[in-house]
Every structure is written in C-alpha cells, then in structure tokens.
Design a protein that fits this description.
By secondary structure, the protein is an alpha+beta fold. The protein has helices spanning 19-25, 57-65, 92-95, 117-125, and strands spanning 3-6, 9-12, 44-49, 55-56, 73-74, 84-88, 114-115.
Length: 130
C-alpha cells in the first residue's frame, strides 16, 4: 500500500484512493469547496516527494486559469498509487470556513484522462490537437 505523508503525519492508504479523501482520512480538514471537481483550487497541495508525472486535463486547465500551474497540485485530481509527501495548502481551520465543502466522490471527477503537463501545454497552445 502507498504511504502518504501530509503535514508531518504518515499513513498507509489503499491504492487508488483520491488524495483529497486520503488527506481527510488522516484527520486533516483540507478544503474541497467544489466537491472535488477541479473547479475551485481549495484542495491545493505542494509536493515534497512523489509528485505524479501526469495530471488531468481539468487540473491543468484550472491551475493555468488561476496562474498556479507549476506551484501547486489539486488533491481532488490525484490518485494515490505510490508513496507521496505533501504540504496541505488550505484547510477549514486556516481559512475559517464552516466546513470543507461537499464530500468528494470516490472516483476522480470530471471523467479523468491523465497526460503530462507538456502534452497539455502543447494542446493548450494548439486547440485543434485536442
């Protein structure tokens, strides 16, 4: 099973678990104000180790739109398939929210396909490639 370290806590998580749900399962109240659909960026994390080399089209688009590409990743768009170490960006406590947001589904949404950031960058530069 993959090992996840978030904000200094380490646990083993079931392979295939969405990162946002794994972090919540550790007792860290990470934001997911859009319900884990890559629309809000409140589930942002910074990788210290084990960053996946691919991302979903939805994650790429949202990070690019918010000028966060290359700075953070969206935990709602990442699946735990190997050991990872992250620092959580926004939490209920740090932001003063009444709750984290709607519960993210077990599966990544919207329907995911994973690409390298370079592939997505070329696609964004030439929309006819999509």
């Amino acid at each position: 099973m993959p090992r996840l370290t978030a904000d200094g806590r380490t646990v083993e998580v079931e392979e295939g678990t969405r990162l946002v749900r794994a972090i919540e399962g550790m007792g860290i109240r990470i934001g997911h104000r859009c319900g884990g659909n890559a629309r809000c960026t409140t589930c942002r994390v910074v990788f210290q180790a084990g960053e996946p080399s691919t991302m979903t089209r939805a994650e790429y688009a949202k990070l690019r739109e918010r000028d966060l590409l290359g700075q953070v990743r969206l935990a709602c768009q990442i699946v735990c398939e190997h050991d990872m170490e992250v620092r959580v960006g926004l939490t209920v406590d740090s932001e003063g929210w009444p709750d984290a947001g709607p519960e993210p589904a077990a599966a990544v949404a919207p329907e995911p396909s994973w690409f390298t950031p370079d592939e997505l960058g070329r696609e964004a530069a030439d929309p006819e490639r999509a």
